[in-house]
């Protein structure tokens, strides 16, 4: 079954909403009121504590999940610090619609996105001709590095040393701590 970007994004938001409901939280999808709100997709609330947080959801079907930013040729990402204001959840969806969730704090999202883009722009041994669309490798969300060469692609590049250094898979505790 072919998946288009709008439907896969909606699927990811719905999957994350269901996970939060399983954890006992209430959820509002902001996109129902404000079409494609830039800074967040969901508001998650704990009715017992009265605390809430916004959450950004990024969903993809490949090993590289796009984050909605375009980089300048020098590697800077305009407005990234103003745009990432809450935790991010990356959802990897396979061909059978099975999901894997990767939870990052806002600061972790900024660090990983900036480092990955800097590596892609400066250390991947290429001359960029247009502004690149920014993505995050699923392996990076799992805490892995990228080796210094890709022999199967016949590309030589520097290694990517993951600044997070830990697996973010199913790290719901990062959001639970904001709601307790």
Summarize the structure.
The protein has 180 residues and is α+β, with helices and mostly antiparallel strands.
Structural account:
This protein is α+β, with helices and mostly antiparallel strands. It has one domain (5-179): Trna Endonuclease, Chain: A, domain 1, CATH 3.40.1350.10. It is 28% helix and 26% strand. The chain contains 5 helices and 9 strands, in the order αββββαββαβαββα.
Shape: globular
- Strand % is 25-35%
* Main beta sheet: 5 strands, mixed
Report the C-alpha radius of gyration, rounded.
Answer: 17 Å
The assigned CATH architecture is 3-Layer(aba) Sandwich
Which residue ranges are poorly predicted, with pLDDT under 50 across at least 5 consecutive positions? none
């Amino acid at each position: 079954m072919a998946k288009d970007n709008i439907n896969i994004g909606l699927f990811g938001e719905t999957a994350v909403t269901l996970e939060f409901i399983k954890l006992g939280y209430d959820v509002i999808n902001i996109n129902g009121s404000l079409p494609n709100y830039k800074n967040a997709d969901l508001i998650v609330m704990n009715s017992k504590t009265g605390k809430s947080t916004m959450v950004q959801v990024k969903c993809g079907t490949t090993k590289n999940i796009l984050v909605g930013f375009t980089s300048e040729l020098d590697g800077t990402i305009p407005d990234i610090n103003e745009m990432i204001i809450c935790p991010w959840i990356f959802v990897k969806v396979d061909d059978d619609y099975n999901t894997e969730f990767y939870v990052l704090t806002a600061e972790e999202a900024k660090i990983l996105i900036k480092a990955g883009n800097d590596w892609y722009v400066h250390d991947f041994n290429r001359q960029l001709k247009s502004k690149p669309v920014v993505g995050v490798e699923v392996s990076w969300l799992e805490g892995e590095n990228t080796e210094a060469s890709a022999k199967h692609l016949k590309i030589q590049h520097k290694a990517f040393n993951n600044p997070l250094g830990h697996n973010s898979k199913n790290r719901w505790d990062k959001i639970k701590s904001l709601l307790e």
